[in-house]
Amino acid sequence: MTETTWDLTPLFPGLESPEFQRAWEDLKGRIGRLKELLEKQASLLEVLEALDACLEAATPLQAYLYARYSADTGDEAALAKLSELEILLLDFQRLRPRLTRYLALQDPEEAGPYRLLVEEAKEEALHLMPEGEEVLAAELSLSGRQAWDKLHESLTSQVTALLDGEEMPISKVRNLYFHPEEAVRKKAYEAELKAWEAHEVPLAFALNGVKGEASVLNRRRGYRDDLEPTLFKNRITRKALQAMQEAVRESLPLFRRYFLLKARALGKERLDWWDLFAPIGQGRRWTLEEARDFLVEKLATLVPGAAQVAEEAFRERWMDLLPRKGKV
Length: 328
Description:
This protein is mostly helical and 328 residues long. The protein contains 13 helices and 2 strands. A two-stranded antiparallel sheet has the order 1-2. The model has no long low-confidence stretch (mean pLDDT 96). It comes from Thermus islandicus.
């Protein structure tokens, strides 16, 4: 029987393990080291290597804690430690305005493999608020955007729908959209809508809290609109985005024709929302083992290296496979 939950022990055995404690202290030390280097105006390479070391130390801690939390938002120990990590990383966030301005003054040609980082810092520095305001924004974010974001994740992972007398998590309800019987799909769709309606007010506040903060900060940082910093972070131009959007618009007639043909295959004139994922033709249920073997076999015919990665992902339990209440 395939294990369905992921195995996080390769990262850390647990929150109280010596490995976790050492990693925590290591991150604190590396942030302190970066601060010292910035204060004494160290060489570019020293600062960049210290920055790299901070990110390298933070990544496994963030990955472990968020993986635990996202698999079970009721994991109070993981949530508490995740909040502590956010406070620790606040020390790093306080350095960012100074770090960005420092990098912006450097020559990208001297940055070696970090050239892109220096080039982007030059652009980002044009949109920095005064250092005190940037630090204040980072500090307020813990009880602002990040708190709203956690509320959204916690709430949406705990929402359940009542279907034929059974209380089910939303992720499990959505799986019923693939059911061959329309009556089942329709019931699932209506049950999900009803479940979300019961939580629409806190979810609306969460959305407004996250996006409202971002919009205010974007305006204070001198961006022309909320899209500009998003394009910058994703390293694409406005022109590239417009080209992708135009490609989508040009493809819409094909998608509409597909849905029209699917509706006819289901014996309808128009496709209902609950029929978007309806299966066409006859199928069968697959076990997890069969699905694993199928994926590995087909990937092997395309990219042997990818097949090996997929096989290792199943064997080492890199994935948390099944829906359940409390899972983000």
